[in-house]
Structures are given as structure tokens and as C-alpha cells.
Amino acid sequence: MDDLIQTSDGSYTLFSERFNQHFHSINGAKTESLHIYINLGLKNFKNSKISILEIGYGTGLNAILTYLHNTDLNNLIFYHGIDNNIIPKHSFDKIFSFITNNDDEIEKFYLSGTQDVYISDDFLLHKELIDFNKFIPTKNYDIIYFDAFSPEVQPDMWSYANLGKIINSLNQGGIFVTYCVQGKIKQTLRDFGLNVKRYPGPPGKRHVLRATKI
């Protein structure tokens, strides 16, 4: 059973007993997600048709924030979130209890299996319950949110082969964003033709990473 934790900005995350890590930062789960995935990833696109791949769908936080912040960006989004674990429904409900105006839409983000669901006319969510090691991309993406647990506890997720197969599906000019700035990860991204840059991190983290396919 994963334990629910309230983080410093008032938002919630889970603690995974399996991996002995939190899904998001205890210094602010929402703050971290906004800083890395929305500000460094999504906000590079406006009035565009884009595809986003998230590795490590987890609680659904990144997907929900992408949907909410796309209102001002006016993108037409295909969002492909994959994970091989389903969090308890009561945990999902608690995590997103801070959203009160569109509960019916937010409910659609709960990962309960593999399915397509239109959140709105401009946001198609494809939720896929699959082991990343078995995942084979069948389309190209403009943004990759890489939000797996750390390389220390999930080294296979960060392997050269696994990173390579999704980077190869990234469009020219596409963006790869993650919280991990380990030297080995940066070198792998460079090997696959990405321009890698470190950026200041959210509270509690010195740096995060954005890489662009050139």
C-alpha cells in the first residue's frame, strides 16, 4: 500500500513502499510538476497540434496540470501516458481534492486500464497500462515527460535502450524533460542527438534537465 503525503505547497503525493521513494517532491508536488513539465516542456508550444508522451504516469498529476494550463496555450493535444501500476482510487481522489470546478473531467484522468478518453475537444488522453520495457512507440512526439522513479531504484527505466527507443520517436525540435541530471543520463541523451541543458530546479532540487532534438 502506498502512503499519502501532504507536501510543502499543500498538494499531495504518494510514498511508494516498493521503491522507497515519493512519486513527487515533498517540497511541493504541484510546484515541482509545474516547474519541470509545464514551464520547461508544455509552455514551449502555443496554438499548435502536439503529442506528449509521459513515462511514469503515476498519480496523473503531470497530465492534469498539462490539461489545465493548456487553456491559455490553445494547443490541440494528444497525451499518451504509460505506467504499469494503478494507484488506489481513494488516493487519486484525495490528491486532486484541491480541484473543485471540473471534477467530472478530472475523474477521467484516473488510470484504471488502457483506454482513450476525450477530456475536452482539444485534449485526447490515451492511458496505457504497460511495462515500459515492453513499450514500443508507434507514433512521434513533440514532448516527452520522463518521470519514472530514480535510476537507483529503477535502472531499467533509464537504460540506454529504453531511452533510445523513445528519443527516436521524438520529432525534430521536440523536447525531453526530466528531474534527473545524472551525467550518464545526459550523455545518453547527447548520444541520441539531443542538445542537453540544465536549469535551476524547484524547491529542494538544485537542477533539472531539458533536452531538445536538433
List the helices and strands and how they pair.
Layout: E1 3-6, E2 12-16, E3 21-22, H1 29-39, E4 49-55, H2 61-69, E5 76-83, H3 89-95, H4 103-107, E6 115-120, E7 123-129, E8 141-146, H5 160-167, E9 170-178, H6 183-191, E10 194-200, E11 207-213
Parallel strand pairs: 4-5, 4-8, 5-7, 8-9
Antiparallel strand pairs: 1-2, 2-3, 6-7, 9-11, 10-11
Helix pairs in contact: 1-2
Which CATH class applies here?
Alpha Beta
Uncertain segments: none
**Percent of residues in beta strands:** 25-35%
- CATH fold topology: Rossmann fold
Helix content: 10-25%
Give your account of this protein's structure.
The chain is an alpha/beta fold and 214 residues long. The protein has a single domain (28-213), classed as Rossmann fold (3-Layer(aba) Sandwich). Helices cover 23% and strands 32% of the residues. The chain has helices at 29-39, 61-69, 89-95, 103-107, 160-167, 183-191; strands spanning 3-6, 12-16, 21-22, 49-55, 76-83, 115-120, 123-129, 141-146, 170-178, 194-200, 207-213. A hairpin with a 5-residue loop joins strand 1 and strand 2 (12-16). Helix 1 (29-39) crosses helix 2. The longest helix is centred in the N-terminal third of the chain and has 11 residues, at 29-39. The protein is globular. 39% of the residues are buried. The model has no long low-confidence stretch (mean pLDDT 95).
